[in-house]
Amino acid sequence: MKHAKGILQRILQVIESAPLRMTRKRERLLAALVALDRPVSAAALRDKADLPASDLVTVYRTLETFEGIGIIQRIPLEDSGSLYELTEPNDHHHHFVCRECHRTERLDLCLGQELEKQAHTLGFTQVAHLMEVYGLCEDCQVAS
Amino acid sequence: MKHAKGILQRILQVIESAPLRMTRKRERLLAALVALDRPVSAAALRDKADLPASDLVTVYRTLETFEGIGIIQRIPLEDSGSLYELTEPNDHHHHFVCRECHRTERLDLCLGQELEKQAHTLGFTQVAHLMEVYGLCEDCQVAS
DNA sequence: ATGAGTGCAAATAGTTTGCAAGCTG
DNA sequence: CAGCTTGCAAACTATTTGCACTCAT
């Protein structure tokens, strides 16, 4: 149980104040995200929400919408693919990700300030940064 | 001219001492990388090396081989795709990348030590990390 | 001459898009 | 009942793979 009790409430608030409709699919996807309580792939999310295979499209569109209102953060994997994480507004952070089983741990260390400063010095605007740490978690070391 | 004079020599040394053959294609790709002197996509590299479209496969295989001996570093883009950069051995660093024109600037700031320490504390091994900063460079701000 | 490297074609993974039909506010 | 959302099919991008052929060592 990583999330504080009220996360669902706060997320629902964000959704309510955003110009979007709460449909059954979105409810199920949101519920699945809360239940999973960790970053997952689009396909894993669809499975957890018990949607048919063809609904992967809807999953992607929903994730995109949710990312737009700031409640989903995308975590790129080392090679290809992404994980998606339910995030409280203004809770920027990074991750340790197992490249085998995709288990993730929160990483509370961020150079955002410094990076942004340097970027502006170089003339860059609309700066965003990405930082992820990949490795093999204990379980996956044993397995291999 | 970002590279010190001797980079080609040092890179050639690495190649010589590695178990691989120096073919005409590889020579051209290497020359193109040196001439470009900045991270590029596989397609851009093929074009610079003046290889036919169908040779993208060879470009990817060569980049993979070169990455294996440590003279190529892969830089993931924000959404999809990668840039490939000729790198001297043991010259780990990160980048500022323009999300529009893919211009890149070197970023000499790295949390490798700290990240590795925290990762090990969490039980992760074979740790690698990724950090890139994306933004709009001056030219691309004007353009848009 | 032997096995690394290449060319061609085709497959793959993950994600996106177009358009008609359905449902929410 | 307007238009956001979905379903289905198909496209797409970046990259990888299989296999026969070629060339560097």
In short:
Chain A is an alpha+beta fold and 144 residues long. In chain A, 41% of the residues lie in helices and 22% in strands.
Oligomeric state of shown chains? homodimer
Number of E-state strands of chain A: 5
* Spatial separation of the terminal alpha carbons of chain A: 28 Å
**Could you say which overall geometry of chain A the principal axes of the C-alpha atoms support?**
globular
Count of spatially separate domains of chain A: 2
What is the CATH first-level class name of the largest domain in chain A? Mainly Alpha
Q: Architecture of the largest domain in chain A in CATH?
A: Orthogonal Bundle
Please name the two chains that share the biggest interface, counting residues whose Cβ lies under 8 Å from a Cβ on the partner chain: A-B, 30 and 30 residues
Q: Strands of the largest sheet of chain A, in order across it?
A: 4-3-5
Our Rg estimate of chain A from Cα atoms comes to 16 Å
Mean pLDDT of chain A: 94
H/E element sequence of chain A? HHHHEEEEHEH
Q: Give the helix tally of chain A.
A: 6
Strand content of chain A: 15-25%
Helix content of chain A: 40-55%
Largest sheet of chain A: 3 strands, mixed
CATH-assigned homologous superfamily of the largest domain in chain A:
Winged helix-like DNA-binding domain superfamily/Winged helix DNA-binding domain
Low-confidence stretches of chain A: none
What is the CATH topology of the largest domain in chain A? Arc Repressor Mutant, subunit A
Structural class of chain A: alpha+beta
